């Protein structure tokens, strides 16, 4: 995770961002601290990368890389405003014991668009990560990568529309995907938990599940109830300040597998 000390909304690279309204870094740090505390309370280990001044979106650690089986597929950001983040995350990972780091040739935004299940990696494209990056990641990681096409600009990263539940299942908002990708999801995950527009619109799908606990935006009221009914333990958090940049709990979290 990366403390949002330099968090701000100063440019527009997704429909959530409004530089006129701006955002409050102090408030963001408070909410982020509560997210970190939630992970620690659940018994998860949290490592921190130093924030860099001039990179207001660096708090969204999920975009910094994709780490699977100890191998690091490095991020290559779409927008110049975030270009410097890729090398910063790769440097941190190298320094912290990950020796197999690939400097990607193709544009990709790490775990923002790559979600790892036991047998397959789901990969988003349409707004940020290039199709060629899906193939590059598959070849480097030796895991099957399934392409999913995103069609709604509010859900510009796969992790804003879908999250893995563990046990080979997922939760998702069908409206974020092309008809073909919806059909793929129905075939792969016949027992998926489907979320509605209201929960998606508060970034309720940008959640982190460890197989039982689900760290999720508190405003996603219906989805929280559905998860509970399916036997999961929702852990609601308030990340409303970070949502002003288009991010939620998952965006703030890079998983080191
Ligand atoms: N403002 C950032 C961007 O548009 C937010 C990134 C959110 N991260 C994520 N994993 N969805 O790039």
UniProtKB/TrEMBL annotation:
Molecular-function GO term, any one: transferase activity
Family annotation (SUPFAM superfamilies): Pentein (SSF55909)
Record has Transferase as a keyword: yes
UniProt KW keywords: Transferase
Keyword Transferase: yes
Domain of life of the native organism: Bacteria
UniProt xrefs under NCBIfam families: DiMArgaseDdahMtb
Protein name (record): Amidinotransferase
């Amino acid at each position: 995770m990366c403390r949002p000390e330099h968090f701000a909304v100063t440019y527009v690279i997704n429909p959530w961002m409004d530089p006129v309204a701006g955002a409050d870094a102090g408030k963001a740090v408070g909410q982020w601290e509560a997210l970190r505390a939630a992970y620690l309370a659940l018994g998860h280990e949290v490592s921190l990368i130093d924030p860099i001044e001039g990179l207001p979106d660096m708090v969204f650690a999920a975009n910094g890389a994709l780490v699977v089986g100890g191998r690091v597929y490095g991020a290559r950001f779409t927008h110049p405003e975030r270009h410097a983040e890729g090398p910063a995350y790769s440097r941190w990972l190298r320094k912290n014991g990950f020796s197999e780091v690939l400097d990607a040739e193709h544009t990709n935004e790490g775990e923002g668009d790559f979600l790892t299940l036991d047998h397959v990696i789901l990969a988003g494209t349409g707004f940020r990560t290039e199709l060629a990056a899906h193939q590059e990641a598959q070849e480097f990681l030796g895991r099957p990568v399934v392409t999913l096409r995103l069609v709604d600009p509010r859900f510009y990263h796969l992790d804003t529309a879908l999250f893995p539940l563990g046990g080979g299942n997922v939760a998702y908002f069908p409206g974020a995907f092309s008809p073909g990708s919806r059909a793929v999801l129905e075939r792969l995950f016949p027992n998926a938990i489907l979320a509605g527009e209201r929960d998606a619109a508060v970034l309720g799908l940008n959640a982190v599940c460890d197989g039982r606990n689900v760290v999720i935006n508190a405003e996603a009221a219906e989805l929280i109830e559905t998860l509970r009914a399916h036997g999961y333990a929702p852990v609601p958090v308030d990340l409303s300040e970070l949502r002003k940049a288009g991010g939620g709990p998952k965006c703030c979290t890079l998983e080191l597998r």
